[in-house]
Design a protein that fits this description.
It is built from 29 helices and 9 strands. By secondary structure, it is mainly alpha-helical. The chain folds into 3 domains: 2-36 and 306-481, no CATH class; 75-249, no CATH class; 487-713, Hypothetical protein af1432 (Orthogonal Bundle), CATH 1.10.3210. 30% of the residues are buried.
Length: 716
C-alpha cells in the first residue's frame, strides 16, 4: 500500500510540475510583444528594407553554425573514443601484492596463533596447513587480479576531456593497433567495479572453503586492502581520438552552394528566409532597421513555439543535470517564478515611454539563483531569460550580448556569499561590465565616439543600485521557500548561537569533537566538491542531542565514573542511540533548517552501537540477538555532505582512543572505519563516488596526522 501511495505521489508531482511549466508558458507568451518588432538587424521572417542587394563578388554560402555544430556533435557522439592499454602496470602491482600479502599473512598468523617468530612458522612443520592456506589464497587473489588487468581497468575520463556526456563505444590500442571490433565502454570494468568483483570472489571462496582455520582469517581478509593494487591500465587517448575527429570533421562540408558576382541576393520587401539569412551572413554585410507586418496567427504560433522551446530546454537541463530541482515542486516553482518575474519587469519597462531598458536590473536573476543553487544553474536560467527578454529590446543583439556578460560577471563575483561585501562588489562589477561592453560595442558599430549615448552610463549606475535590492530579496525568498543561503549558514555556524552555547556548556568535550569534525568535513568537501559551509554548519549541530545525557558519552566523562557500569547493555545502547532522536527534538525546538537537521539523523546512518552490540554478543554466546536493539534509526546519508560528515564523525571519535599516534596507526584507523561503513552500505543513497571516498581518506589521514603532531608539540 505504501508503494501505491508513493507511486501516486510521484505521479501527482510530475503532473504538477508539467502544470507549472504550462502556466509559465501561457504567462510568458502573453507578456511578449504582440507585434513583430524590427530593428537594425535582419532576422528570419522579416522583410528586407533596403534596395535590391546584388553580390559584388563570388562567395560560398556557409552552413549555419548551429547546423555545422549539430553535424559535429552527431559525428563526435557516434565516433568511438580511443583508449590505450598499459601492460606495464600489471607485473609491478602483482609482485607488490604477493610480497605484501605474504608479509601481512605471516604477521596476522603469528598474532592469531601466538607463534613465537616467523622462523618457527615456516620451519617447525606444525603450521603446514596455514602455509597451504597462505599459498592457496595468495595464488587465488593473484589470479583474479591478473584476470582484471588482462580484461582492463578503465580510467573514466570526464565530459570536459571527451567533449561528450556519455561514452558509448571505444577502441583499445594494444601495441598501437586498434582492436578490429568496437567495444562497449560499459563492458570495461572500473577500479571500483573490479574491487567489488574481486571482493565478492574472495568471499565466495571463503564460504566454499572447508579448511579448519579459514574462519580465523575473516578479520585478515576484511582488512586486506585490494584496491591499492588496482590501478587503471586502460587510459583515454585524447590525442588519437582528436586526430580521428579532425579527420572525420574534414569530410564535413562547410558550404552548401555558391553565389556568383552580379547575382541578386535579396530584393526589397522580400521576407528573409532561413536560406536567405545564411546567404546574408555569408555575405557579411551590415544591415539596417527592418519593419513590416506578419500574420497575427503566425505571430502567436511563433511566440508559443519559441517559448515552448525555451521552457523545454530548461526542463531537459534540469532533468539531465539537476534532477533534484525538478523533483522538488518548491525549487521548480521558484526557478519559473523568477523567470516570469524578470520578464514581467521587462514588459513593464517596455510599456513605459522614455525609460531606458538598461535600468532594468536583469543581473538580479543570476545573483538570486546563484545564492540558492550553483553557478551552472544560475547562468543557464539567466541566458534563457535574457534571450526571451530580447524581444522587448530595440537592438536585440546588443541587449543580449551586454546582459549575458553582465550576468556572468555577477555570478563570478559571488564566490563567497557569506561576506556581505560581496553583494556590493557584485553590483560594482556588473556596472563595470555593462559600461565596458556597451562602450566596446558602440565603437565597433559606429567607428567613433560621436554616436555613443553617454546617458546610458547613468542608467548603468542606477541599475547597480537596484541590484543591491537582491540582498533584501534573498532574505525574503529564504523565508518564503525555505532555502538556505551561505549568509544564513554563516550565521548558524556562529558558536554564539544559543543552541551551540548550550552544547559548549553542557557537553564541552562533545562541542570540541564537533569543531574537529567540522574542520575535517569542510576540508574534505573543498577537495571533492560540495558546499563547505553547509557541511561545516551541519557538523557543529550533528551531536547536539548529547547535551541531554552528556555524561553517558565517553568524551564527556573525563576519567570519572562510567554511568553505564550499572546499566543493562540494551539500555545503555538505547541511551547512546537516542542522542539522534533528542537531537532532532532540539532541532525542531530551535527551528533549525531541514538541511541542517538532516545531518543529525544521518550521521550514524543505520549502523549499530558496535561496542554494546559486540559486548552483548560476547556475554550471550549462542543466543539469537535482535540487531535492531542496537541499531541507529537512520536514514542513511542522502547527500555528499551527509556522507562526508558521517566519515569525519566516526574517524575523529575513534582517533581519540588511539594509544599510539603515527601515520601508520592513523591510516589503518581511517581505512578500517570507512571501509566498514562502505561494507555496511551506508553511502548507497548518497551522491558520492568511490574516487571521492578515496580522496576523503587521504585528506583525513593527512589532517589527523597534522593534528596529533601539534598535540605532541604543544601538550596540554
Amino acid at each position: 500500500m505504501n508503494k501505491v501511495f508513493t507511486k501516486v505521489g510521484n505521479y501527482l508531482k510530475h503532473v504538477l510540475t508539467i502544470i507549472l511549466f504550462v502556466a509559465s508558458l501561457v504567462v510568458i507568451v502573453y507578456l511578449l510583444p504582440r507585434e513583430r518588432k524590427f530593428d537594425l538587424e535582419y532576422s528570419i521572417g522579416s522583410p528586407w528594407k533596403y534596395e535590391n542587394l546584388v553580390a559584388n563578388f563570388n562567395f560560398s554560402v556557409y552552413k549555419p553554425e548551429a547546423e555545422l555544430q549539430a553535424e559535429r556533435d552527431s559525428l563526435i557522439n557516434n565516433l568511438p573514443l580511443y583508449f590505450y592499454f598499459n601492460g606495464d602496470i600489471f607485473e609491478k602491482n602483482l609482485k607488490s601484492f604477493k610480497e605484501n600479502f605474504d608479509k601481512q599473512w605471516v604477521v596476522y598468523s603469528l598474532r592469531e596463533f601466538k607463534i613465537d617468530d616467523e622462523k618457527t612458522y615456516y620451519e617447525s612443520g606444525r603450521y603446514v596447513s596455514l602455509i597451504n592456506l597462505q599459498n592457496k589464497y595468495r595464488d587465488f587473489i593473484s589470479s583474479t587480479l591478473e584476470q582484471a588487468y588482462v580484461t582492463g581497468i578503465v580510467r573514466e575520463p570526464t565530459a570536459s576531456e571527451t567533449g561528450i556526456q556519455k561514452i558509448k563505444k571505444v577502441k583499445i590500442l594494444r601495441n598501437n593497433i586498434a582492436e578490429a571490433e568496437e567495444t562497449s565502454f560499459n563492458s570495461i570494468p572500473t577500479a571500483k567495479s573490479a574491487y567489488l568483483t574481486i571482493g565478492g570472489l574472495i568471499l565466495d571462496k571463503i564460504e566454499e572453503d572447508n579448511s579448519r582455520n579459514i574462519q580465523r582469517y575473516s578479520a585478515f581478509f576484511s582488512e586486506l586492502d585490494i584496491d591499492k593494487y588496482l590501478v587503471e591500465n586502460v587510459i583515454y587517448n585524447a590525442e588519437k581520438t582528436d586526430l580521428e575527429r579532425i579527420e572525420s570533421e574534414k569530410k564535413i562540408s562547410l558550404t552548401k552552394g555558391k553565389i556568383q558576382e552580379g547575382e541578386l541576393i535579396i530584393a526589397k520587401g522580400v521576407i528573409v528566409t532561413h536560406e536567405t539569412f545564411q546567404i546574408l551572413e555569408s555575405y557579411k554585410r551590415d544591415y539596417s532597421e527592418q519593419f513590416g507586418q506578419v500574420n497575427s496567427f503566425l505571430a502567436w504560433a511563433g511566440r508559443i513555439i519559441l517559448v515552448l522551446i525555451a521552457l523545454s530546454v530548461i526542463y531537459l537541463f534540469m532533468f539531465n543535470f539537476r534532477r533534484e530541482i525538478l523533483n522538488s515542486i518548491v525549487k521548480t516553482s521558484f526557478i519559473l517564478f523568477m523567470m516570469v518575474a524578470m520578464l514581467l519587469l521587462a514588459r513593464t519597462a517596455y510599456n513605459i515611454e522614455n525609460i531606458s531598458y538598461y535600468i532594468v536590473p536583469f543581473a538580479i536573476l543570476p545573483i538570486i539563483i546563484r545564492t540558492f543553487y550553483d553557478e551552472r544553474v544560475a547562468l543557464f536560467i539567466h541566458v534563457i531569460t535574457i534571450l526571451l527578454a530580447g524581444f522587448f529590446a530595440d537592438s536585440r543583439f546588443e541587449f543580449v550580448f551586454i546582459n549575458i556578460f553582465a550576468g556572468m560577471v555577477a555570478i563570478f563575483s559571488l564566490t563567497n556569499l557569506y561576506h556581505r561585501s560581496r553583494f556590493f562588489l557584485a553590483a560594482l562589477f556588473v556596472v563595470m561590465a555593462y559600461s565596458f561592453t556597451y562602450f566596446g560595442l558602440s565603437i565597433i558599430q559606429d567607428g567613433s565616439f560621436t554616436f555613443i549615448s553617454w546617458l546610458n552610463f547613468r542608467d548603468f549606475a542606477l541599475n547597480g543600485v537596484l541590484i543591491l535590492i537582491s540582498f533584501l530579496l534573498i532574505y525574503l525568498f529564504e523565508k518564503i521557500f525555505g532555502f538556505l543561503s551561505d549568509t544564513t549558514l554563516m550565521e548558524l555556524s556562529d558558536t554564539n548561537q544559543p543552541l551551540l552555547r548550550k552544547l559548549a556548556e553542557n557537553a564541552p568535550a562533545t562541542f570540541q569533537h564537533s569543531l574537529q569534525v567540522a574542520n575535517l568535513a569542510e576540508e574534505a568537501i573543498r577537495h571533492i566538491g560540495g558546499n563547505p559551509m553547509l557541511v561545516r554548519t551541519g557538523a557543529l549541530y550533528h551531536d547536539i542531542g548529547k547535551m541531554v545525557d552528556a555524561s553517558y558519552f565517553t568524551e564527556n566523562q573525563a576519567g570519572g565514573p562510567n554511568p553505564h557500569a550499572n546499566k543493562d547493555l540494551k539500555e545503555s545502547a538505547r541511551i547512546i542511540i537516542d542522542h539522534v532522536i533528542k537531537g532532532m527534538e532540539l532541532a525542531k525546538k530551535y527551528n533549525l533548517p531541514e538541511p541542517i537537521a538532516n545531518f543529525i539523523v544521518t550521521h550514524h546512518g543505520t549502523s549499530t552501537a558496535k561496542y554494546f552490540y559486540r559486548t552483548y554478543q560476547n556475554e550471550n554466546p549462542g543466543k539469537i540477538i535482535n540487531a535492531q536493539d542496537f541499531q541507529y534509526p537512520g536514514p542513511k546519508p542522502m547527500t555528499k555532505e551527509n556522507a562526508v560528515l558521517m566519515m569525519a564523525d566516526s574517524v575523529e571519535a575513534a582517533s581519540r582512543s588511539l594509544e599510539k599516534y603515527s601515520l601508520e596507526t592513523i591510516s589503518e584507523l581511517v581505512e578500517r572505519i570507512i571501509n566498514s561503513q562502505i561494507d555496511e552500505g551506508q553511502f548507497e543513497e548518497a551522491d558520492i563516488t568511490f574516487r571521492d571516498i578515496k580522496r576523503v581518506k587521504e585528506i583525513f589521514k593527512a589532517r589527523l596526522n597534522t593534528i596529533y603532531h601539534a598535540r605532541i608539540a604543544y601538550p596540554k
